[in-house]
Design a protein that fits this description.
303 residues, single chain, four-stranded antiparallel β-sheet, TIM Barrel, globular, 29% helix, 18 strands
Length: 303
């Protein structure tokens, strides 16, 4: 039997398979398909301090086996989430990570302050800096090291912070270094690639807001590179890999590249049981290859 226990910074998790923000809802929606307490953690859809309507429809479109989305971070706001969704998550036994975002540094501070003092099942905050900064001409926080640092620092609520970074930068290690320097205990690598889908008959973009983000299988090699580069640059920093994880072998790839854990995202839209399937597949992979403890895989690239 393989020891699946992993550590993500100061947290010890039962296993390295988590849900990804934006793909598993705000509460216990996936509990109909598997036990949430059997996963390493459940990362909820990103929350702002206040309700936010998001982008116009259509918000989702296929791109081969991958997916385009322009949801626009719609959500009920932190207060409504605490009242409506967190109790169901607590009852499910899930280990919970809250993803937060803001349109300004103050927005991150407000969202984080609302989470302060909650305690279990909330164990960490994923700071989604891959969102528009209205104080900087709507350029993404994650595209600038100073803006990233300001947002991460503002999101301090007494829980471990994981900075979720964008792959759409020239040097992701520069951005990661800014996040770590501002207090991030971990890095979530990566968010979606900037992309565009076009309907050549209608001569319009396929998404209501125009461009969007590409996720799924096409993102995996990009995310793996980001994980490997950041593991080499920050050997002591926790890393959560995300991007195209749909099997146990995919999860193993991220662990070998340097991730301490992985998040299953787009695959969940096709199969809501995907996170549990990935976990089972990872355990089979370890048993098949004589891996006694999953931590043996972490950062073993080139070993």
């Amino acid at each position: 039997m393989t020891d699946l226990t992993t550590t993500v910074g100061s947290l010890t998790l039962a296993n390295p398979v988590l849900t990804a923000s934006g793909t598993a809802g705000y509460g216990a929606e996936l509990a109909a398909y598997g036990r949430l307490d059997a996963l390493g953690a459940h990362v909820v859809k990103s929350l702002a301090a206040d309700p936010w309507p998001g982008n116009p429809a259509p918000r989702l479109a296929s791109s081969g086996e991958s997916m385009l989305n322009s949801v626009g971070l719609s959500g009920p706001g932190v207060e409504a989430w605490i009242e409506r969704d967190l109790p169901a998550l607590a009852a499910s036994g899930a280990t919970v990570v809250a993803s937060i975002w803001g349109r300004s540094v103050e927005g991150f501070a407000e969202a984080a302050a609302m989470l302060a003092g909650l305690g279990p099942p909330l164990v960490a905050v994923e700071v989604n800096v891959s969102c528009p900064n209205v104080e900087d001409r709507s350029r993404m926080f994650a595209h600038d090291p100073s803006a990233t640092a300001e947002a991460v620092a503002a999101a301090d609520c007494g829980l471990p912070r994981w900075a979720k970074l964008s792959p759409n930068v020239a040097d992701i290690c520069e951005i990661a270094g800014a996040a770590v320097g501002a207090g991030a205990e971990g890095l979530t690598l990566v968010n979606t690639l900037l992309a565009l889908g076009v309907d050549p008959v209608a001569r319009t973009a396929v998404l209501g807001a125009g461009g969007g983000g590409l996720s799924g299988p096409a993102l995996r090699p990009v995310a793996l590179r980001a994980v490997a580069e950041c593991r080499a640059a920050f050997p002591q920093t926790a890393i959560v890999g995300v991007g195209g994880v749909a099997s146990g072998e995919h999860a193993a790839e991220f662990l070998v590249a340097g991730a301490d854990a992985v998040e299953v995202g787009t695959a969940t839209f096709a199969d809501p049981r995907a996170p549990w399937r990935v976990l089972e597949g990872l355990e089979r992979f370890c048993e098949r290859h004589g891996v006694a403890a999953v931590r043996e895989l972490v950062g073993s690239l080139g070993a």
